[in-house]
Structure formats: structure tokens, C-alpha cells
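Contributing new complexes? Match this layout with adenosine-5'-triphosphate.
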Amino acid sequence: MSLEVKNLCKSFGGLTAIDDLSFSIEKNAITSLIGPNGAGKSTVFNLITSFLIPDSGHVFYSDTEITAMPPHKIANLGIVRTFQDVKIFNKLSVRENILLGLSQTHQQRLLTSILWGVSSENKRYMKERTEELLQFIGLEAIGDERAENISYAEKKLVILARALATDAELIMLDEPAAGLSEESVNTIMGLLKRLIKEGKTIFLVEHNMDLVLQVSDHIIVLNFGKKIADGDPKQIKHDDKVIEVYLGMS
Ligand SMILES: Nc1ncnc2c1ncn2[C@@H]1O[C@H](COP(=O)(O)OP(=O)(O)OP(=O)(O)O)[C@@H](O)[C@H]1O
Ligand SMILES: [Mg+2]
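Output block (do not edit by hand):
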């Protein structure tokens, strides 16, 4: 088991955003969290990574309780998440944006190397890793381009690469394919499958059902903060409740 959420609850004033939610995520698999707008998907991400503190309930990562643990400690354990809105440094290059994802340890070592003029080995590692990630997302040709000049689809890929730069084991992606063309969605799909081959665990929030049904090993469905279904793509596709509240909408 990679991640386990037990009886999680979160209210905002009078609104119960997450209502006694429990689920678990298998290691080295793709688990998707789906549901209508406002169902509580991003809130679940925020609760797991301590961007929000739950009212009650528990979160475990590889048997370690991480409930309300400071975000940097959660990151150090090997969890990374992206945000639903595109957070990118417009004035930095594509390459520099990816470099920022490299772990604190590498950044600290780089700082030391700049201050003291040592550790070129670390600099080399960072350079190589950044190039490797640029290649992974297929954007080697625009590595020096300022982020403000690249397309929306390219920005989504840079955000993914920045998350991968952390070398986290559990990668939580909040709508990585939102607003993308079919071609770009296919690119994302291919990259997710490759990450699984490399041993990563993926927790995906996504509205694109073609993507979700094709890549997921497991799907959890939320509605008004409650889990209404939990199963493999085939089970979810034919679940009456899911069709009624979500799939039937499109
Ligand atoms: N920080 C907050 N303060 C107050 N209300 C919030 C906060 N965050 C989320 N909410 C509310 O909680 C509910 C769940 O929101 P959330 O963003 O988790 O939904 P979502 O499933 O991610 O939706 P979408 O598919 O539109 O991204 C919504 O009613 C939202 O308005
Ligand atoms: Mg959301």
C-alpha cells in the first residue's frame, strides 16, 4: 500500500467538503479520483499534502502517519503534487522551471557549490537530470525558451517534469490534461504509463474520462465529499450511481 486515507472529514463553514472519506492507493499503479465540479477532489489533495488540515481522520503513507505533517516533511518522504491552476515562473526558461523541482538537497548543494566553488559533480547531476526530464516530456528543442512564450499544453508538460524532478515515489496530479487537445492528452497518457514502468505510483484527479478509463488501475468516485464508488474502470463505467451523478452528464 502506498497511501491510505481513513475517515477524513473537512468542512468550510457550513459546507461539508469531505465527508468521512476512506480509500487506499496501491503502489506502482494509477489510481484516479473523479467526480463532478466541487465534489472535493482538490480538497483531498490539499488534505493529504497539508495545504489544508483535516477536521478529523488520518492519512498514512507507507505506514507512516502523515496527517497534518508540514508539507516539506511530506515532500521529503517522497510525495509530490501539482496544482489544478498552472503555476509556472513566466520569466524563467523551461529548463529553469524544471530545475526548480530538483530536491532541496540538490538545491542546497548547488548553493554551497556557488558560494564555495566546489561540488561540480552535483552541478553535473542537476544538469543531466534536467536534460533527461526535458527529453522525457519531449521539449528539448525549447529548453531555453521563456515559459511565458510556450503554449498551454507545453506548460502542462513542464509542470509534470518539475514534479518528476523531485524524484518522489507518489506523484499526485490535479487535472494534468485539462484544456489539452486530444494529441496532447495522448502524450500525457504515454508519459503516465512510462512512469508506472519506472516504478512510480500515480494519484490522478482528472475530468477527461477517455484518459481516466484508459490508464487507471483503480478509480474512486466522489460526490459532495462522499465516496460513491470504488473499483476498476470496467466496474466504474457500469456503476448506476456513477452514471447518474457524473458520467451521464457528458
Ligand atoms: N479553501 C476553501 N475555503 C472554502 N471553501 C472551499 C475551499 N476549498 C474548497 N472549497 C469548497 O469545497 C468544495 C470542494 O472543492 P474542490 O475544489 O475540492 O472541488 P473539486 O472536486 O476539485 O472541483 P473541480 O472539479 O471543479 O476542480 C467546493 O464547494 C469548494 O467551493
Ligand atoms: Mg479541483
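Reviewers usually confirm one structural detail per submission. For this one: The beta strands are 3-12, 15-25, 30-34, 56-61, 64-65, 79-81, 170-174, 201-205, 218-223, 226-231.
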